[in-house]
Amino acid sequence: MAAQEDRSAPRHPLTIAATLRPSGATGFKTVVTDLSLSGFAAQALTNLHAGTLCWLTLPGLSSLQAEVVWNDGNTIGCAFATLLNPAVLQSVVDRCS
């Protein structure tokens, strides 16, 4: 189960190429546009429904398990299963924003 989404967590707008793999499916290239301790937003041309488990792979990091929380047709919002370590988040933001 995904970590409870904390919409008050500071969100970092960025543009970072990543891979997203839905449970039971092949991964696809995406662009993460927003990152926080609790989740992310990313472009998704594939229709992923709320509740779908997925794994996000950012450059230099192991895959991060998440759950789709919302989908507006072109963008998805996901909550990480485990909150990101603040130092890891800051490292990604420093490299990619």
**Structural class based on helices, strands and sheet pairing:** mainly beta
Specify the CATH architecture: Beta Barrel
Distance between the termini: 29 Å
Spatial strand arrangement across the major sheet: 1-2-3-6-5-4
Biggest beta sheet attributes: 6 strands, antiparallel, barrel
Count of beta strands: 6
Shape: globular
Helix count equals 1
What fold name stands as the CATH topology? Thrombin, subunit H
In percent, how helical is the residue content?
A: 10-25%
Low-pLDDT regions: none
Compute the CA-based radius of gyration. 12 Å
Number of domains: 1
> How large is the share of residues in beta strands?
35-45%
| CATH superfamily (homologous) name | predicted glycosyltransferase like domains
Instruction: Tell me the name of the CATH class.
Output: Mainly Beta
Mean pLDDT comes to 90
- Listing every helix as H and every strand as E from the N terminus to the C terminus, the arrangement reads EEEEEEH
- Indicate the multimeric state: single chain
